[in-house]
From TrEMBL:
It comes from Candidatus Kuenenbacteria bacterium CG_4_9_14_3_um_filter_39_14. InterPro entries: Hexapep (IPR001451), Hexapeptide_acetyltransf (IPR051159), Trimer_LpxA-like_sf (IPR011004). This is Acyltransferase. Pfam families: Hexapep_2. SUPFAM superfamilies: Trimeric LpxA-like enzymes (SSF51161).
Amino acid sequence: MSMNFWKKIIACLISISARIKGVKFGKNSYIGPWYDLDPKMRGVVLGEDVMIGRRAWLDIPLKSGGKIIIGSGTQIGRNAVVSAIKKIEIGKKCLLSYNVSLIDHDHRFVRDVSPMDSGLTEGREIIIGENCFIGAHSFILKGVKLGKNCVVGAGSVVRESYPDYSVIAGNPAKLIKI
């Protein structure tokens, strides 16, 4: 039997497993092997033709009621982290390279309290417009809104919002071109 046949079987089993865990799948959507999803998690919606690479971590911590919405045709590279207490929405036909993190909250710091007991801060939505590209090893932090057709350079830390057609890069990210 061909290797393609076995890949389709494995993809089908992974998709069934993710559906059981509460992920809503659009037609032809795929999550790569070794993904990490909490079995009690709800609130993840994948549009049609979404591809999420291996070892991705989609997370809604602490049963917060957060939402992760990924638009049709979007591809997310391996080792991505998408963690939402509030809401993370990625538009249609976006490309997120490998090791990209989108996190809509921070870890709280309380003096004389262990980090494990300090908890998380309140989340702020992250919205990524359609047709955006986010380069490898980039971080998109809470409250960021990127307009459509934006490009984020590799290794960027995005802390602010940017309008349509922005090219941004750096740590912290700065506008390079509109």
